[in-house]
Specification:
486 residues, alpha+beta, Nuclear Transport Factor 2, Chain: A, six-stranded antiparallel beta sheet, 28 strands, 20% helix, 34% strand, Murein DD-endopeptidase MepM/ murein hydrolase activator NlpD
């Protein structure tokens, strides 16, 4: 026989008709009340006894609240905190926790206590990392000094960088990263601990401090110089089509100017024509790409093809556009040799000093004293010096039997036998010889006969031959071997 927790008494016997007795113990009233759920969920089992019991509880609570309330028109009295004075309000605001939108600055500043002791001077950082950018016309050493590098360290850094590349060859916009170390006192500049920059497209440099000296480390960057070739249809606009193909704006302008020497871009081109450009390109192993000058300009019109290569002819200072056969041709009208206004034209006129009618064999151009005078065509200086009424006079010989003369100069900038390029300064405006004021007397001759400079158009042709022609053809073959888009 044993007793169970539910107060049931069982008697076990050997027969099947065992005796089982149950003796329940009555529970107190408080215990039964505690078992009821006085606040059941009114959203569940609607209409049940438990639901009605919960509704009665809710009604009783609402009635009690209404009975004990002072009324809807009578607010409850309450005491507010005493307003703080200005210093105390600032201190409490600094230590309070409030949204930043309400003007709090929690954590930005804290009020000092008795453990805080003011310092005579604020401690310095052990090192400072900063950067400086080279501007147009800026000097490398001057940029370092401006950033806070000491004069001695700036001179040493400039000397080490100059051993690898000329300082004036570093392009503007180059970023220089600097690390300045700890200094012994505040009266001296911080020492230069580290400097790094991209000195050239194919060279990066790092300067490190070793004791009292700086050591340079060079990192050579591999560069692929395979040109970029772009092809496509002219479409509605040659400029827009070439730009959409990936050519820079300056390259497209050079391409159109090159084609303009052989055809009329606005009249002769059609939408079905195909353009062909080869541009100098450099691709560094670090991922940067830099596009250069236009090397090849081509246009395929089906019945006609123009192929021009940028090439420097022997004896020329600048490169020009040669066709695939090695011939360069330039057409056009000459510009003015000086910036000014024409005061006397070509033809018969009354001489301002001699006082009689006389043939004026050139143009008089008034300009400020000392203004530069430019050669109107490529050529060679035939004579340069004093020439009677012309004063200081320069005569240039050009191709095709042409010659040009420039008189009344204040100073001559060339010497006899010297080759000159179109646009090169050959002298300066003056009033030497028979002259009434500072101006240029400009004459042109064809086969020794005076002609009106304004009516002259020119055609210049240059042809390559010998080894120059063979080198040119090798260059053309190399450019034609470049695959488009690679």
């Amino acid at each position: 026989m044993f007793l169970k927790a539910d107060r049931e008494l069982e008697l076990a016997g050997g027969g099947a008709g065992g005796l089982r007795l149950r003796s329940p113990v009555p529970r107190p009233l408080a215990g039964r009340a505690a078992g009821f759920d006085w606040t059941p969920d009114l959203g569940a089992r609607i209409g049940s006894r438990a639901w009605w019991r919960g509704l009665a509880t809710c009604t009783a609570l609402c009635a009690a609240t209404w009975t004990l309330s002072p009324g809807l028109d009578r607010p409850l009295p309450g005491d507010g905190p005493v307003p703080l004075a200005a210093p105390a309000a600032d201190q409490a605001r600094a230590q309070a926790i409030a949204p930043l939108a309400l003007g709090a600055d929690t954590g930005h500043r804290m009020a000092a206590n008795d453990l805080v002791r003011p310092l005579a001077t604020a401690p310095e950082r052990p090192s400072i990392e900063l950067g400086v950018t080279l501007g147009d016309g800026d000097g490398f050493q001057r940029a370092l000094t401006r950033a806070g590098v000491g004069r001695r360290d700036a001179e040493a850094a400039a000397r080490l960088v100059a051993e690898a590349t000329p300082l004036d060859a570093i392009p503007s916009g180059t970023r220089i990263a600097l690390t300045l170390g700890r200094r012994p006192t505040r009266t001296v500049a911080r020492p230069l601990d580290r400097l790094s920059l991209r000195a050239r497209f194919d060279l990066a440099m790092t300067l490190r401090r070793a004791g009292d000296t700086l050591i340079a480390e060079r990192q050579v960057i591999a560069v692929d110089r395979t040109p970029l070739r772009l092809q496509g249809l002219v479409g509605a606009s040659l400029y827009r089509s070439a730009r959409a193909a990936g050519a820079p704006a300056g390259v497209v302008e050079a391409y159109i100017k090159a084609l303009a020497t052989r055809l009329s871009v606005g009249r002769d081109l059609g939408s079905a024509d195909r353009f062909d450009l080869v541009i100098a390109r450099e691709r560094a192993a670090t991922g940067e790409t830099r596009l250069g000058d236009l090397l090849y300009a081509g246009i395929d019109q089906g019945r006609r093809a123009v192929r021009l290569v940028h090439w420097t002819a022997p004896g020329d200072a600048e490169a020009g556009w040669f066709d695939a056969a090695g011939q360069a041709e330039r057409r056009g009208f000459m510009g003015m040799p000086v910036a000014g206004r024409v005061t006397s034209s070509f033809g018969m006129r009354m001489h301002p000093l001699l006082g009689f009618l006389r043939m004026h064999k050139g143009l008089d151009i008034a300009a400020p004293y000392g203004a530069p005078i430019y050669a109107v065509l490529d050529g060679r200086v035939a004579s340069a010096g004093r020439n009677a009424g012309y004063g200081n006079f320069v005569k240039l010989g050009h191709a095709g039997g042409l010659a040009s003369g420039y008189g009344h100069m204040s100073r001559i900038a060339v010497r006899p036998g010297m080759p000159v390029r179109q646009g090169q300064v050959i002298g300066y405006i003056g009033s030497t010889g028979l002259s009434t004021g500072p101006h240029l007397h400009w004459e042109m001759w064809r086969n020794g006969q005076s002609i009106n400079p304004r009516s002259l158009s020119f055609i210049q042709v240059a042809r390559l031959s010998g080894e120059d022609l063979r080198a040119f053809r090798r260059q053309v073959a190399a450019l034609m071997a470049v695959r488009p888009g690679e």
